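Archive maintenance. Older records in this collection stored only the sequence; we are now back-filling the structure field for every entry so that each record is complete. The fields below show one back-filled record exactly as it appears after the update. Entries are processed alphabetically, and UPF0145 protein IV68_GL000850 is next in the queue.

ARCHIVE ENTRY
Title: UPF0145 protein IV68_GL000850
Organism field: Weissella halotolerans DSM 20190
Length field: 112
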Amino acid sequence: MKENNVLVVTTENIPGYQIDQVLGEVFGQTTRSRNVISDFGQSFKAMVGGEIKGYTKLQTTARQEALARMQKEAANLGGNAVIMFRFDSNTSSLGDSVNAYGTAVKISPLSV
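Back-filled structure field:
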């Protein structure tokens, strides 16, 4: 199963579906380093106010990568959904770390 076919929700249940099997915790992690030269310019911008677009882009890219890795891990376990999905992030001098995590499950549509 391709990772992009893995449904990801923040809830415990998915309306219209039943959970057939719980496969366990799955994680997607990434750490993105910042560009030292860009970092200097971004720091200056932070002093004068306004959005720091370089950091916003870095965070967005890191979240997308962590999410895709988590979906791939769920698919590798045979799951087609992740429930109770969450992000956790941390910024350090090395860069921004993002963890995506949840519970991989197999779901099927509820029969009517």
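Update note: Residues 13 and 47 are 44 Å apart (CA to CA). The radius of gyration is 18 Å.
Entry marked complete.
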